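Section 3.1 - Work completed
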Amino acid sequence: MSSGNGASPSKVTPMALRVVVVVALALLFWIFAPVFLLAFGGVLISIFLRTLGTWVSKWTGLSAGWSLAIVLVALGLLSAAGIYLSGEPVTKQITELVDQIPRSLEKISNDLKNYEWGKWLAKKAPTSAEDLPVSGKDAASYALGALSSVTGGIVGGIVGALIVLILSLYLSFAPDTYISGAIRLFPVRKRERILAVLKEVHETLQMWLLGKILSMIVVGVLTSIGLGLIGVPLALALGIIAALLTFVPNFGPILSALPAVLLAFVDSPMRALYVILLYLGIQTVESYLITPLIQQKTVSLPPALTISTQIGLGILFGAGGVVLATPLTAAALVLIKRLYVEDVLEAK
């Protein structure tokens, strides 16, 4: 017998169970976020490899396994050829870039002292070890800690990259094994729907990746050519940096422009202005011409949502969160739309 107008235990218990499940999943995601990000990176690379393998299979009629093996061998040979043909020039330019940026900063600092506001900034900046927040043994400990942190970050990045690569290979050669295992975690009546949603997530990430790779190539080529025409040194290295950072929308282009502007400023402020205009022009073409054309057949994400996700994941999980924020957002939008909006809110 129910008491008053209170909800019956049969209705309260399932709702309470759902809340517990959601909270538990959120805690698991928080605790294992680094593992989740690595796994998601592996999924992205495996989607890229499987897409290339599918194309090879259609052209040659070979099985998926052999087609994927051909893709891996071809990518390995292309990488080796690229390193052999341009590895030394690129490495030399990147080394010079690392050497010249501190010199550029020093020259800019000296030039700023010719202005009153520059002198004011120079007075506020620390000029000796005594002016720093820490000094003496504390400064040495601080420097050692910073060096250890940087070294640990580099080692961690290399290990993470290896893990992502190994995961992507396993996922590429036997995707059905992992998909069927994930599907079995859901009730039988829901498995067909979950499989359809996962396929849509796969297609969304696939099209997003293809569009992003095309944008990266266009931006890298235009940047290298433009900087070369302006007369900025190390144009090839700067173009490669611009291409790689295009993977991170909104913030990547800004970061890629900084070293080019610094190098150009060493020659003259006017050349630095030309570089700024060049990067603005390339990003305008990429944002308003290339990306819209690509998104006609790929996926379009709301800019405000993308930026918010990048900031949030960046604060929570660091650089990895920023890099993977956009594809995570694309996948999450499909899941929310299909499994929550359609299956819960709009369910009859």
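Second construct:
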Amino acid sequence: MNRIAVIGCSGAGKTHLALALGKKLQLPVIHLDQLARDRGWAQIPNELFARRQEAALAPDGRWIADGNYGSTMLLRLRLADTIVFLDYPTHVCLYRVLARRIRYRGRTRPDMAPDCPERFFDREFPEFLRFVATFRAQQRPRILDKLAGLDGSPPVIMLRRPRDAMRFLATV
């Protein structure tokens, strides 16, 4: 495992798993949230985001890509030699999103772009919760289609519960 794509719903624990894998395997972790935004939550154009990823994720390099971003997911999936899909229940992801908002309220998470402090309630928060709540019904089938299109290469490790991730980490 030299190029790992960690994907899944917001709140599933992609960053936590990516950092733990990075430490264990001595691989750099690329946080897509840092590449997708500029200071102050400014979303960058998709073309620039794709170029930033291409620069960060060398096809012959060693890395862990932490994040979803469906518009550029195939780029990462095709470069990865291993894909880890955190396919967790909705209630786990919703709980973790809320806990993360509380934990980092007013501060920028280490995996985010600079000057992007967590805001517990803002205009986008209800829409973000709706995205998380409907992820399994709306986003998951799209991800599964992309994974099926890879024809089994690279291998996909499906983790369905947090304890599965702990077991996976113990075996790496």
